[in-house]
Amino acid sequence: MLARRIIPCLDVHGGRVVKGVNFVNLRDAGDPVQVAARYDAEGADELVFLDITASHEERDILLEIVRQTSEVIFMPLTVGGGIRTLEDIRMLLKAGCDKVSINSAAVRNPEFVAQAARRFGSQCIVVNIDPRRVAVPAEGADTAEHQELVNSVPEHLRVVPHPAPAGFDSPTSQVWWEVHISGGRIPTGMDALALAQEMERLGAGEIVLTSMDADGTKDGYDIEITRAVSDAVTIPVVASGGCGSPAHMLDALTEGGASAALAASIFHYGEYTVREARQYLARHGVPVRTDEPLPASS
């Protein structure tokens, strides 16, 4: 069985690592290069770097910080935020990242994911999906941009009710999961499960699934949607949003069916180390990468 991955995430705003709750109320967590170096020393499997306001501010990602980060770590680096063109991807890969994470552009122009996968290979194309539970699918709009976006969603990608996954204590028998973009600011009228399947069809190699409802709460991942998306696609799904302890990672990797668990707050503020999380998972039977050297070949 493939080893499950532990992935710290650096949300970067104004050149600093930050962390909020439900995508707002950000607080400082340090210099991204220094934080990345610490996680590399702790033995993280991968690192995700997200410039969380690049799309909303319609600017390019902070390439110099990406370059500096890649120079101090030896683990795979995924970078996202403000990626809109194939040239953006080329520049990020040139700056030292191994994978790119596409969010808003994947919703606005799904064909961009197919173009990127053909040009650079599916193995380095990640799609980050930010869903929120809603009572009903989006029908109205509070801005012209929202109205245009919702109206442009193809029928097969529109928000629909899903039966609550079996075995979960859901408040209702049906769940709507609506995708949001631009750092969670804009609802799209797009269904999270349908979008994940579409991204796999177009060539994405991985999905990072960030529950907006759970993000920053430290109450645990949204296991229901993690399981639903993991069951809907065959590519790896990274659980994101809500991790407050290694026990929550265990839930995401077992009950949720995720291939990796992404976390921020518990690592940034010293509540747990990556090594402690890995040891906890190993004790509970989850296959993880070990720090011990491989035996010498005979």
Strand coverage percent? 15-25%
Tally of extended strands? 13
Describe the strand arrangement of the main beta sheet, using strand numbers: 1-4-5-6-7-11-12-13
Largest sheet: 8 strands, parallel, barrel
| Structural class computed from helices and strand pairing | alpha/beta
As residue ranges, the low-confidence spans are 293-298
Helical segment count:
11
Q: What is the radius of gyration computed over CA atoms, rounded to a whole number of angstroms? A: 18 Å
First-last Cα distance:
25 Å
How would you sum up the global shape?
A: globular
Order of helices and strands: EEEHEHEHEHHEHEEEHEHEHEHH
Average pLDDT works out at 85
Helix content: 25-40%
What does this protein structure show overall?
The protein is of the alpha/beta class and 298 residues long. It has eleven helices and 13 strands. Strands 1-4-5-6-7-11-12-13 form an eight-stranded parallel beta barrel, surrounded by seven helices. Strand 1 (5-13) and strand 2 (16-21) form a beta hairpin. Helix 7 (192-202) packs parallel to helix 8 and helix 9 crosses helix 11 (274-283). The longest helix is centred in the N-terminal third of the chain and has 11 residues, at 32-42. Mean pLDDT is 85; it is low at 293-298.
Quick synopsis:
The chain is of the alpha/beta class and 298 residues long. It has eleven helices and 13 strands.
What's the structural blueprint in terms of helices and strands?
Layout: E1 5-13, E2 16-21, E3 24-30, H1 32-42, E4 47-51, H2 63-72, E5 77-80, H3 86-95, E6 99-102, H4 104-108, H5 111-120, E7 125-134, H6 144-152, E8 162-163, E9 174-181, E10 186-191, H7 192-202, E11 206-210, H8 223-232, E12 237-240, H9 246-254, E13 260-263, H10 265-268, H11 274-283
Parallel strand pairs: 1-4, 1-13, 4-5, 5-6, 6-7, 7-11, 11-12, 12-13
Antiparallel strand pairs: 1-2, 2-3, 7-9, 8-9, 9-10
